Amino acid sequence: MASGGSVSPLAKYKLVFLGDQSVGKTSIITRFMYDKFDNTYQATIGIDFLSKTMYLEDRTVRLQLWDTAGQERFRSLIPSYIRDSSVAVVVYDVSNRQSFLNTARWIEEVRTERGSDVIVVLVGNKTDLVDKRQVSIEEGDAKAREFNVMFIETSAKAGFNIKALFRKIAAALPGMESLSAARTEDLVDVNLSAAASQSRAGTASSASTCAC
Amino acid sequence: MTRKRKGRPLTIDDERDRDQATIALVNSILDKKPVDIAQLRKVSAVKGLVNNELRRRVWPVLLGIDGTEIPHSDYLQWAGGTHRDSSVIEVDVQRSLWSYTADWTEERRDAKRKELKDLLTAAVCSYSGDVYYYQGLHDIASVLLFVVGEQSALRLLRRLVICHLRDCTRPSLDAVLELLGLLLPVLREVDRPLHDHIQATGVPPFFSLSWYITWFAHNLVRLGDAARLFDLFLGSHPIMPIYAAAAVLVAFRERILECEDDPAQMHHLLSNLPPLGALSGDELARRAAAISQQCPPKQLLRNRHMRPVMATAAEAYQKNGIFHVPDQPRAPKGIGGQAALGNLANFVMPGGRKVQKRPVALLSAASAATLLAAMLGMYFANVHSNMGI
């Protein structure tokens, strides 16, 4: 090798997105990747893969995102992806109680495959549907505490808390322990919005944002 | 639309002449009784059926459906039913039909979606629990609905879910995953270097899932393109979409060969290939048909010593010129399941990774599924150990 010895290989981390059909898994990823929301989205069939480089304060990481179909019958595809992921993002729709109740099953599936050797984030999406909300932020927070996982509410449509979600994940990645909660506020990938900055990246089970 | 051809491009006049000739040919086939189904299937596959008026007449014939209407009372009863996946149909339909209704009003689109929901619900409920809805069936149903209308679409869909799509409508997806294991062996027959390159990355064949279970409808924007491919699939062996998938891969061979040796990147590239990005619908249909002749399903299974244990599509047979699919897999022959199990390893993993054989008594449908899951797990373990994560 020539003089490039100081360049360390890009650390890769794999994230798998889980949750019932139509809770917004693809929309969250699309908002994160391209900062857009597609009104004419359609169901994900099977497994999709995208990757994005995140430039953090003192390092750069490559996030590999596996987007999954929500229907029960596609689940036979998924365990292998869970098994190989550092992070499981379990999404529900705050306007659909059943999708919230089913997160327990998804989290258990992750625990079955990975035990505690995995970061799990519970995400209540679609906070823009204010009038249709069926699951309160307190309930989401309580469930996250019960399962000892991280929690955040988002709206992919409004662009609310999506960057905060990924900053939170980035801060919790293996090898990121040296970054204090305060320093994660300075991650350079994002322009902090007022709402997003209320997020506290950090330890498991921390309640995070309000839905204002 | 212009289609590239060797020599000179086809002019609009050429196309019109060709289309008129196809219409005349199809009419002559339909007028002669009994209808020569084999010839009709060939014309549909190779030439396409030109317009929806012709499709309305030919598609039912290709599936062996007679002209008997389904009583409206039955339709209403089925469409008003509920089943285990009612809520899935609800959300899938809500986010469907965008590409086919680009300039429609919201009201008109919603009315069409209601038809689509009724159609899917009726097809599933009419089998009283034996047929499972899957995400992607709505893409196929959409094409049927737009091309032949609600009544006719129901008759076609009711047939497809127990015939060409039988493996898709089983309680789990395992049979389909087994079928996808045929793709690389097919590719190996037609483009060995491309096969070797894809196989070397260790990417599982799941990138082709939406191609297979939606007949590419999920991946195409224009109704006419989807309808053209349906001309092929409706009259062909049920695993024809596997051959079409191989044709798509070959069409993009240069881009695929340039892809780095990483299963995740390869999955991303392959699953996002536009099926008609390099070929017209006609060309893709013709190439798929040609590949299927080069290595027909039976020959493929025999040459590669493969034997599906959960899927039945590969063992479809013809009766009076119409394809039928066994409802359930055959019980393993010979000394219990040993032979079938050994072959299953080859089937799922054409690379020939070893699988530990298990006692004969364990080969029930359930244990086969478990074994498949375990092998896919092993497969992934191998894949991901290559990913350096």
Automatic annotation (TrEMBL), chain A:
Chief localization: membrane
Membrane topology: Lipid-anchor
Entry keyword set: GTP-binding, Lipoprotein, Nucleotide-binding, Prenylation, Protein transport, Transport
Coiled-coil features, chain-numbered ranges: none
InterPro entries in the cross-refs: P-loop_NTPase (IPR027417), Rab (IPR050227), Small_GTP-bd (IPR005225), Small_GTPase (IPR001806)
Record-linked SMART domains: RAB, RAN, RAS, RHO
Gene Ontology annotations for the cellular component aspect, listed alphabetically: endomembrane system
Source organism, top-level taxon: Eukaryota
Matches recorded under SUPFAM superfamilies: P-loop containing nucleoside triphosphate hydrolases
Places the protein is found: Endomembrane system
GO biological process, one term: protein transport
Molecular function terms, GO-annotated: GTP binding; GTPase activity
Subunit organization: Interacts with the C-terminus of GC5, but not with GC3.
Family (UniProt): Belongs to the small GTPase superfamily. Rab family.
Protein known as: Ras-related protein RABH1e
Lineage, opening ranks: Eukaryota, Viridiplantae, Chlorophyta, core chlorophytes, Trebouxiophyceae
Chain's gene name: RABH1E
UniProtKB/TrEMBL annotation, chain B:
Transmembrane segments: 360-381
The keyword Aminoacyl-tRNA synthetase is assigned to this record: no
BP-aspect Gene Ontology terms: endoplasmic reticulum to Golgi vesicle-mediated transport
Transmembrane listed as a keyword: yes
GO molecular-function term, one example from the UniProt record: GTPase activator activity
UniProt entry keywords in alphabetical sequence: GTPase activation, Membrane, Transmembrane, Transmembrane helix
PANTHER family noted in UniProt: RE60063P, TBC1 DOMAIN FAMILY MEMBER 20/GTPASE
Protein name per its UniProtKB record: Rab-GAP TBC domain-containing protein
